[in-house]
Amino acid sequence: MSLITTLARLEAVDTGRAQPLATVRHRHLSERPLVFVPLTTAGEAGAPLGALVGTDRDAPRLLVVPQPRDRDLRFTFLAELADVVLPYVDAYGDAVEAAERSETDPETGKRVKVEVELCADAPQLIVPSRAGIDFVRLLGRSMRFRRTAEQDPETPHPAPPRVPLLGRWLTHFGERARVPGSALLLALTDVLSRHWATGQSSLEDQHLGALLAWIAPPEGEPGAEAALRAELQRDAKGQLLCPPAGPATDPAFDNKLLAPAIERYDRARTALGAAEDGLEADDRLGELTAAEQHIRDLVESRTRPTWDAVWRGLDLLRGLPEGAHAADRWTRDRWSFTGHRDGVLAGEPPQPRRDDAVTAANKLATREREQARLEAQEALDDPLVMAGRRLAGEAFAGEVTDVVMAYSESKRPSPRPLVTIRTDDRPHLGERAKVYRSLGGKPQSAEFVEYVEREDGDGDGDGDGDRVRGRGEDGGADAGTDADEAAAGLSVVLRIVDKMGRGKEPEPGSVPEKGDQICFTLFEHEQRGGAKLPDPEETPWTHGGPPTESTEAAEATGATGRTGAAAAALPEPDPVTEEDLL
Amino acid sequence: MNKATLASALGSPSAFGQSQFAFMRGNAFEARVKADGGAELLRLVHERLDPGAVPPQGAAVPDLTAVGPEGRAARTALALREATEAGAWTLLDHPLLALDVAGSPAFLEPDAVVVHPDGSWTVVEIKSFPMLDGSADAAKVGAAARQAAVYVLALEQVANRLGADRLGADRVVAEPQGRAQISNVRHRILLVCPKDFSNLPAASAVDVRKQRSVTRRQLDRLTRIEDIADSLPDGTCFAPDLPAADLTAAVESVPATYAPECLATCELAFHCRARSRADGAVTSLGRSLRAELGGLTTVDDVLAAARGTTGDPTDPAVAALRRAAELRAEALGSRSPGHDRSLDHKGTPCP
Amino acid sequence: MTPASPSPFDPGAEAARATGAILRDTLHGAHRGVVVDSPPGAGKSTLVVRAALELAEAGRPLMVIAQTNAQVDDLVLRLAEKNPELPVGRLHSSDTDPYDKALDDLPNVRKSAKAADLSGLDVVISTAAKWAHVKGVEPWRHAIVDEAYQMRSDALLAVAGLFERALFVGDPGQLDPFSIVGSEQWAGLSYDPSASAVTTLLAHNPELPQHRLPVSWRLPASAGPLVSDAFYPYTPFRSGTGHADRRLAFAVPSDGSSPDRVIDEAAETGWGLLELPARHTPRTDPEAVRALAQVVRRLLDRGGAATSERSPDPAPLTADRIAVGTAHRDQAASVRAALAELGAGGVTVDTANRLQGREYDVTVVLHPLSGRPDATAFHLETGRLCVLASRHRHACIVVCRAGVTDLLDDHPSTEPVQLGVTVKFPDGWEANHAVLSHLSEHRVSWRP
């Protein structure tokens, strides 16, 4: 953790409220996000208990599985969820704009521009916490290999239509969420703690209630106390006043409230089944409905506080202006969304259980590139983030104290002006290190020439101090924090090398001027694309050769042997046992 | 000593406790795995760990009931010896193992131990978290591996007591630091979990050598536990029915280093956190915070140093803090209106 | 290696036998790949150069893949030194200063940013990153992949289509490749893109012959057993020299100060631990940095002379034969500044990452855990300590605050465990304990 973040946390402890970690909002927020607050059943993988979902903060849709071990009830829940999520997603698939993308021409092998559709906007899912993202992934995985009766009339437990499609979309959202800086699926606790430092640990920040208690504590109450109440305070029945944001529930809720309610529901269902005539059945149906309603009330009582908290958190985030580059990253999200939309329309099969070697390597490369992009863009958009980079020696800012015109030694000399910058920062500059500044939104490069130690502490700007410091690291470009040096400060001499036009004289405004406040970074502002990997069908022998139908199962080292159903067009569905009904 | 009870008595109840749904599901799964005389479990051990051995066809499942932990541990040791001598697949369901900890025995109950036809022993851990497409929650697998490593150590002690040479095991296991050791306790344990979304069992072998050597070293070190005990006031006793003040005094006489990770693993963590926060310890905000703070350990000290009121400016930690404070102030000076406080005081996060 | 061999260990013969087998498999073997594990200073570069020359001599053009530009340039220089006539291509990037200027003096080395310009040359050398951009060429029949354990699986995926068969050489004990983003999602897959290239290669081709260079020519007899036991527990190696073969002596006798005493201890036994009082410090612990700088200053001032099997005459211990190793860049910068103040600027000071593959007579190391309040995975990484403890031919002096053993005991490794991932040995936690316990026998307490 950067020392600046540490300080912010300690100041939060001291002042009793969260302190800013950003001056702008570093994630795009949709005008109309879909908020999803799920609950799961303890001890079972992917057995939802219920959820609040929707785009209207005042009218969430409540979905409940009154008996989570009943597969049919689970399917009903998932079908209802699909009825909410898929129309929301589809709406964004319809509005498109024309865009260009470079593709490799299959005949010539050359990169050519092709005109394609790009969705004008994309859906955005918000879950309360990081565990919610994992749950979205789990739901996606549990649904996308299900078969509907239409796909496979023989399937023993056909899934409702559209459930496999919902699984594919949730899988896509879950995978996209792994890309740094993406915003198709966001965990609110992550976004909030990106922008505010609380007086508690980042582990505790994953409790949405406690996190909000620090960011916006009730009047007069210190954040620490409000957070403690959010974490631990219970009512007379032993229930948490601020229920966990899920998807896991509090054991006390399960044992004291939910278990008896489910028992009552089971009894009512058995009784209804045993009813001997219509009149008795009517009576017992009433009891079943009441029992179900009770469970619905319980689920709503656990999810509604979180639902409201999510919207409050979104309000807080909307109070920050969006960072300049957030839109650029959102465009990448739109490409991602459009790509999956196209894949679904083209009838591609669901995402495989395991990535093949080439897909995995491509994803890793993309994420590394996006991580570097995110770090650079956040710093460029936000002086507070840049301050952290400056402290780490990865950037420096200061005043231009001298500009000397110089030219390259070639037949057609180009301008290579020498710029001296007085800075209190301590950049880790190696010999001829490249540095960059933003010039009209584009990076301008310069080369480190030398350090000049200022004789006078106040630096009156004649830029003519003794040139005693060496070139590059070997000469002792120390990042030491020796107090005397810190007081004296340093000047850095740079040679500007590009973005000055084609002429002998630099274009106006392209060279810094004496007196300018200026900031250079040691990191690049834009990311180069990596080398293209082979196509999956050209996977080399070192990586097992091209994937075959059965590779997928074989690569999963821990999996018990899966008989390859090569004939099936669709991947084999998960095995279903009577026992998973328990 | 039950830490959860103790925590409640101290006034810092933990959030721990198990949902009965999870409990029932876990029991049902374990019962299923061990059904039919452990046929499925032995099949998995054979397939994952010992495919060269004769396939198990019905296994001996000796009765391990006895009176008291000592009795049960002795019964387990006897069963292990008999099974090893018999040279046939044997399933020990919930055996009891005695492990010497700082001179006194601790009793451990693994889910199962399987004796192979070659006389080697395998620890089996049955967990209810899923193995999804062959992978599982790494933190949970890590915890299971550490737990199993303790069982492996305990089994090694049993083997030593029984005399490994007499067990007919001729497996020479290469050990680091050139130590070769004869052991019939396998260092790969079998982890059994529900497969995907079903409750069919899936199994994976987990190498616990690292965990075993860490645990071994820690147990060796625990010989010094008497030193800790000696330094405690006489009559220290953690019994929840003592008055809270006495209890607090007793608990606080034991040195404990709280870090937020404790919240996930220890029932007393909320109590320790309260103490740590009251002391103003920076580690209550995360262990990693301390890395750059040098000798400064409290919130007040750090902030005073950062503000320039205390601290030696030639100390790099102090100098870096001041620079950080300057840079932070500079950046926030140009702070955008987004952080204005108009959104504050709008209701409480929770009722 | 059969440990029970009755004849005395003959390092030269053992090494020659291993090299012979490797070259035989490389030139005449039936397998598409050959893997060679090379512990520190076991002659990896010599092997690579020799294999390249023999392949070229046999009329089989080959490509060489290294991981950094410095490694590529070093290999080109070594090849040219062994055979100045050999036509070598240096494929480089289009950045400014893409290669070492020393290459310009070699008449038979052609340099280009385009692979097509280098076709037909006996040997073409570049980095994995540059090779990944080469498309649409006829595959080479042979490749040598250097530092293969530091190469990521995805980097091998990008270049493996360029060759038919390859010799993979590397040191499994050094720093593992890493990724700046999470890759847990692929853990346990045989082709996990963030794993090392060798891990993936062997998972898919377990039948490939695997060799090991059994002798370290760099590490002295005092360091071989410790480094082998601590970092290569299941693949031991020996030191190629005996205790009598190396000697480090100083003309100026000790003045009784802590730096002099630890220098004498290290000269005598090969190891020295200069222990400062226990204290939590920031990474750039000024006292430790100062102590370290003083040790270096005294090493230079005391007229050291190193005698070794290389020459009968003692070689003076000059600044270029000494290196300082740290875990972090800011520590290296502080040490450089402190050395500059003491007028000892010519000594190499670098982080473990950058010291990989380099060799000195004496190294002075700031222990990665010195003064730390916590032990993170970064600081416990075995490779880091292994690199720092295996760069020296004569002696290694470690500067450290007291209390690291307790720190380790307070931070037992509780790492998550991924199913299906082969456990890597040794564990950083254990290796650290092993090294510390050995160093404690060579302890000199710091007295200012």
TrEMBL record, chain A:
Upper lineage: Bacteria, Bacillati, Actinomycetota, Actinomycetes, Kitasatosporales
Residue ranges with Basic and acidic residues bias: 464-474
Descriptive protein name: Uncharacterized protein
Low complexity: compositionally biased ranges: 545-571
Bias type Acidic residues, positions: 453-463
Organism of derivation: Streptomyces sporangiiformans
Region (Disordered): 453-484, 525-582
From TrEMBL, chain C:
GO MF term set: 5'-3' DNA helicase activity; ATP binding; hydrolase activity
Entry keyword annotation includes Nucleotide-binding: yes
The DNA2/NAM7 helicase-like C-terminal domain, residue ranges: 289-401
UniProt keyword terms in alphabetical order: ATP-binding, Helicase, Hydrolase, Nucleotide-binding
Statement: the UniProt record of this protein carries the keyword Nucleotide-binding: yes
Entry-linked Gene3D superfamilies: P-loop containing nucleotide triphosphate hydrolases (3.40.50.300)
Name of protein: Helicase
